[in-house]
Write a structure and sequence with these properties.
single chain, mainly beta, 2 helices, 17 strands, 11% helix
């Protein structure tokens, strides 16, 4: 059960308008920015750097880069734009190394179509998805997408009861663009827990996320706009922690 009504009202605004910036701030605000360290067996193997901005028109743009720890430059980048109704405007993914493949996911009437170019100069291959343009995007290696999913879940599935917000399990349709696949994801509340992040103890909201045969745990900070702080994969020694 959530204890911060003001923050959750802000989340509802983000779902509708793709931001929960302060009312007095001008359009074009930064909604979130930072980086996630990706650890395997407690060793940092990669970093995701991300930002979420709201435009003057209300659309939100989420940009992300993925860099392996041994590399100087990012190997992948992505950009996703969502309109004020929560519908996808466009999603782009680019492989920067070792190859140069790229894909674009765009609305096609009320559904979506993916265009993939596996090598520079080749003709794009198309794959239609009979999925609504409000479907969740959960691409590989970009954990900021899980933050956006968590915000969407909390704004839609955590009604207020007696001054508090009680979350119920929910399911969403999602697309994993790099795998060219559509899936159903299930998300549910677990607890509000004290968790140590980078040496500092915080009380975080714990959610469970099931994507096909993989189970994930998400921890969000209710004192900081429910930003995603940590992610782990059940049964594997993988941890994703906000820097």
């Amino acid at each position: 059960m959530l204890k911060n009504p003001t923050a959750l009202v802000a989340l509802s605004m983000l779902l509708a308008a793709s931001a929960f910036a302060k009312e007095k701030e001008p359009a074009g605000d930064v909604v979130d920015t930072g980086s996630f360290g990706i650890f395997v067996n407690s060793k940092r193997v990669a970093t995701e750097t991300f930002s979420i901005h709201q435009s003057k028109g209300g659309n939100s743009t989420t940009s992300s880069q993925f860099r392996e720890e041994a590399a100087k430059d990012p190997s992948q980048r992505s950009e996703m734009e969502i309109n004020t109704a929560g519908a996808l405007v466009r999603y782009e993914w680019h492989e920067l190394s070792p190859g140069k493949s790229e894909l674009t996911l765009l609305p096609n009437n009320e559904f979506l179509v993916e265009r993939v170019i596996e090598n520079p100069g080749e003709k794009a291959k198309e794959k239609p998805f009979l999925m609504p343009n409000t479907s969740v995007i959960l691409d590989n290696n970009f954990f900021v997408h899980r933050e956006i999913l968590a915000w969407k879940y909390m704004a839609s599935s955590c009604p207020q009861e007696s001054g508090r917000y009680k979350c119920a399990p929910a399911q969403f349709g999602a697309i994993i663009p790099q795998e060219r696949d559509s899936v159903r994801v299930a998300i549910a509340p677990v607890a509000q827990e004290k968790v140590t992040i980078n040496g500092s103890e915080r009380e975080l909201v714990h959610l469970s996320l099931k994507v096909e045969d993989a189970d994930w745990d998400l921890w969000l900070d209710p004192q900081d706009h429910f930003k995603l702080m940590r992610v782990s994969k059940t049964g594997e020694s993988i941890q994703i922690v906000r820097d």
